[in-house]
Amino acid sequence: MLAQLTRDERLNALIILFVVAACGVAMMIAGQGDPLGLHGGVVLAAAVLGIFGVVAGYYAPEPSEARFSQYYDDPSKIGIILAMGWAVFGMFIGDWVAWLLVYPDLTFDAGWSSFGRIRPVHTTAVIFGFGGNALIATSFHVLQRTSGARLPDQLLPWFVLFGYNLFCLLAVTGYMMGITQSKEYAEPEWYADLWLVVVWVAYFILYLRTLVRRREPHIYVANWYYMAFILVVAILHIVNGLTLPISLGSAKSYSAFSGVQDAMTQWWYGHNAVAFFLTAGFLGMMYYYLPKRAGRPIFSYRMSIISFWGIVFFYMWAGSHHLHYTALPHWVQTLGMTFSVMLLVPSWASAGNALLTLNGAWHKVRDDATLRFMMVAAVFYGLSTFEGSFMAIRSVNSLSHYTDWTVGHVHAGALGWVALITFGSIYAVVPWLWKRERMYSAGLVEVHFWLAVAGTVIYVFAMWNSGIIQGLMWRTYNESGTLAYSFIDSLVAMRPYYAARAIGGLLFLIGAVVGCYNIWMTVRGVPRAAAEVPAASADPDDPIRQPAE
Amino acid sequence: MGFDHDTTVWFSKTFGLFYLMALLLGVVVYAYWPSNKKRFDQAAQSILHEEERPWR
């Protein structure tokens, strides 16, 4: 890793690491007797580890000029491995949380393992750890290929990747110590948030610096989605993260907003995190890896542009549907609901575009589990966006809100769409990155596919049942006009579904472990590809059909 | 007409309609402008035959 950095870059890496170490020490001193001090120790340890690494390789020979004739893929490779590591960790915690709801004793009487602490560990590990690393890794790959340009330097990508993982580590360890802002998907406290701003701005600068070096004036649509993901997440994160710590020596902070404004800001953030982290970025993945793997151009490039602007502008307004029947003004709720329903148009345009791209390549979908991962992901994208629009309608929301239906909806999107498109993309990109002729075992990809699909379906159906039963029990009245069921009655009714959900989650987790093994064996064992053959048909006798108009 | 609550609410409730319609028009015109077709077709094809090496 260090051999690819120039001497100057190694020096800069050391400077950065010393600054990070100094921050860690400052946090330790200021935060004595506070969890902040412990986190200072984590930061210091991470920096010292990095310093040892850089010093050990400091006098290694410098990279040759030959590097400029190759893409810089090592950050992508490490990013993929980190993503898979976070996937297994996050899904393991997720399944633990699921079993915890069936058997409440599974906290083993510890504070750090209580439901309220390990649930955000699960969501952060899978969304930011798994999803975020996969997005960073694939964005570097897609950006370089579609621009025809190498990343501009060798240091910044590592800063982004490792800096981001330090943020994830601070987040996850913080929850277990009880550090949280208690805002969905925005739990990490102020110092971790500040660090993420630095990392994220660096990521955006890196993206732009590579993009200005591109070969063709036109920017391929996948890059638009990745850029929207980076830019908008920065905006959301900064605005929702406007907090004041109670002192510089404390991990605790309070939001700059209060009351319903705070709630609206949080759900503007929260729903757009779904839109730009979990949708735009992964659509970027889809618009590159799906056509590439299928060997066919995207069905309608024009539709991809229109749906891009539709998604970007509609999502911004939809957050208030999380606050139906609250103190939020009624018309703001209605506005959010209306935009949520309108979102169906660009969402289905994207899902339809993906599926129509496969028209004429269905035999490949049948034979190739990697492509099938992406196809099923597009189907789930279509299903969960339909469901989301539907659930945002106020009267539907009165039944679904606060129930497991919401949990089922989120997982239809997170497992069915986000994770499946990611696994499909990873199986496509691993042989390309490591220059292997294929994955170690196509059979194991198949096994993973079926485990993932079965797990998702079991999970989602369990939560639909549980959520609707729960919602109905909460609103059933008896003749005297009082509630027919106590809360504990609804818990008893949900228990079988909780067990089913945990089993579905377990299947999904096993699939991810199988995927890790397959990737590991591909990197270790599969012979190198003779020459780097692009997956697309290079055969002039096999003309690729033009996109339909 | 001062910058009071009612004005602000009126503005919040209406301006989105106009700029979103303008945006929609702009995007559709851009996407379907006949002379852009070639560029989009090329872009769609571009990822299928990429160079193995960066140009810089």
TrEMBL record, chain A:
Entry's transmembrane regions: 12-30, 36-59, 80-102, 122-143, 155-178, 190-212, 224-248, 268-290, 299-318, 338-361, 373-394, 414-434, 446-464, 498-520
Coarse class of the protein's main subcellular location: membrane
Location of this chain's protein in the cell: Cell membrane
Binding site for Cu cation: 271, 321-322
Enzyme Commission number(s) from the entry: 7.1.1.9
Cofactors named for this entry: heme; heme b; Cu(2+)
Protein name, entry field: cytochrome-c oxidase
Naturally occurring in which organism (per UniProt): Vineibacter terrae
From TrEMBL, chain B:
Keyword field contains Membrane: yes
Protein origin, superkingdom: Bacteria
Membrane as UniProt keyword: yes
Positions of transmembrane segments: 15-33
Sorted UniProt keywords: Membrane, Transmembrane, Transmembrane helix
Name listed for the protein in its UniProt record: Cbb3-type cytochrome c oxidase subunit 3
